[in-house]
Amino acid sequence: MYGAQLIEALRRRDPSLNFFGAGGERMNAAGCELIVDAKNLAVVGITEIVSHLPKIYGLFQKLIRAVDQRKPDLAVVIDSPAFNWRVARQMRKRRIPVVYYVCPQFWAWRQGRVKLLHKYVDKAVVIFPFEERFYRDRGVDATFVGHPLADLPNPAITREAYAAEHKLDAAKPWITLMPGSRRKEVRMNLATILEAAERLHAPSQEVSGQEKNRKEKNNLEKGRAFDDYEFLLPVAPTLDASFFEKLISIETRFASSDPRPNIHLVPEALPALYHSRAAIVASGTATVEAALMGTPFVMVYRVSPLTYTLGKPRVKVPHFAMVNLIAGQEIVPELVQNNFTAEKIVAEMNKIIPDGEARSRMIEELGAVKGRLTLARAGAHPAEVAAEIILGLITR
Length: 396
Hints:
Blueprint: H1 2-13, E1 19-23, H2 25-30, E2 32-37, H3 53-70, E3 75-78, H4 81-93, E4 98-101, H5 114-120, E5 123-126, H6 131-136, E6 142-144, H7 159-166, E7 174-178, H8 183-200, H9 209-221, E8 230-234, H10 241-251, E9 262-266, H11 269-274, E10 278-282, H12 285-292, E11 297-301, H13 305-311, H14 322-327, E12 334-336, H15 342-352, H16 357-372, H17 382-395
Parallel strand pairs: 1-2, 3-4, 4-5, 5-6, 7-8, 7-10, 8-9, 10-11, 11-12
Helix pairs in contact: 1-17, 4-5, 8-10, 8-15
């Protein structure tokens, strides 16, 4: 997504530019020739990556061969530090300037690795306000441009049109489920999220529509949650719908609720979040998306026990959720590893689904996070600012 925005911004300034590299469908649609498909790099965790190393190294070599053949004027690497700092090192050997857009979160853990940016990167373009000072204090030429999603308009599609398109009941409250964007991540998170959905889903007895609406209104007035939902599960661009269909079939096969929760696979996260009453979101960019849509949510996350044991002592920040880091306090609950249970999810969701102080406070604080992610530069999208920086480097 960020790469596609950047390509479009660069092309508006200079239509003669050509792009190739590693990316996904959106970058390809924006005009980037894909040497490596990002789906093949979507691995998370310390122990999890080991079995994928031969394939990833082969893709890395393929990308570098393309660099040697085409001799680009500049390289832009986006996020994915385990892969991209090695790309940056190879670019430096070839005297190709490097811009790091969406910098590694070295401020969160492994802070010593900042020296890699200092050594191999000519310019760091950062998207969180606290990152500029962190990197500059460590000798990296960094500029905060704002978060690429911060000024996204609200989805134009109405709730009724969205319901018709995805066969949803517009009269019911919707809950968005976001278990992650990588296969291993989803496998670790989805089962507990579905169990929470099952516990939240307690269908009313057969009653008239008027009676049902009255009951839901009374629930809200009394500070209780709704008693019937539909669940939306956006399929990340790095995954396939069939992958989720198979997992959901396995996880709900022995579900105790009857009927089972209505889980609808949808193609995009933002409209789902925007029209949902609340969400259950795995740690990552999705938490920022939920904040930008103003949707109250609970953050969850789990990795393998060995990965957690090895990684936890290295974490240097007080919160896991990006929105909490930006806010400087815990504004959304964080249920991580052993605390990530269906019971705790339901308890937290039942605080933020009904109207009341907890819900209003979270919505207000999420709005403040959105404000902090916006660069105080009238009319300039972060990708436009980044494009200006990149073209300046090429010209220089």
